[in-house]
Amino acid sequence: MLELMRMIRESPAKTTSRKLGPKSVKHYHTVLSTMFNDACKLKILDENPMENIKVKAPKVKVKDKNFYTVEDIEILLKLLFKHASIKHQLAVLITMSLGNRGGELTATRWNDVDLQNMRFRIDESNAYTPEAGSYIKDTKNEPSERTVAFPPILVNLFLSHRENECLKREM
Q1: Phi (first) and psi of residue 11, to 5 degrees
Q2: I need a labelling partner for 100 at 20 to 30 A (CA). Which of 6, 124, 133, 137 fits?
């Protein structure tokens, strides 16, 4: 097993260094260990030969987060209210306030918005594939399904947007 792990560590990879990264080595170790564990459970092997072979966990590089500054947000809001339609103002403010994903925003229906209690339900997402086109699906994962409160400033924007949508239908 030690020889196998050495071969995995030194095997050529399709990278500039021609070596597998620590994450890949750890992955192979986990796969082999799991495979031999299953063989032990099935009584094919008496013990897991990977049990005493340790692999260092890969160092995780923390990526710099790219956040907007207060000044950036002030500029955005100033331009938003001066130049954008109510629909776009609402989209930006919902996303800034609630932190939802783009697909979640575009899958929103009027029955997801509770104006009286200022609640916004997120339980679906819009997706696109070239084969199927645009379609509605469940959110990315179960914890993504949520009902969140929104700030009072959005109530009037929702009402104005609804009114605009009704006027469009009448035309």
Answers
A1: -65, 145
A2: 133
Tokens encoding 85: 């339609």
**CA 114, 120, 122, 126 torsion-angle sign:** positive
**What is the rounded CA–CA span in Å between residue 138 and residue 125?**
6
Q: Count the Cβ atoms, other than its own, within 10 Å of residue 72.
A: 10
The total number of residues written for the chain in this structure:
171
Compute the distance between CA of residue 123 and CA of residue 129 in angstroms, rounded to an integer.
20
What is the pTM for the complete model shown? 0.59
Helical ranges in the chain per DSSP H: 2-10, 22-41, 70-83, 86-98, 102-106, 153-170
CA quadruple 15, 16, 22, 25: dihedral, nearest 10: 40
Q: Which two tokens stand for residue 3?
A: 């020889």
Q: Please, what is the Cα angle at 151 between 145 and 153, to 5 degrees?
A: 135
Taking the C-alpha atoms of residue 105 and residue 139, their distance in angstroms, rounded to an integer, is: 11
Q: Which amino acid is at 131?
A: E
Measured distance between the N- and C-terminal CA atoms of the chain, rounded to whole angstroms: 74
Distance of CA 3 to the CA centre of its chain: 39
Cα gap 1→29, rounded to integer Å: 10
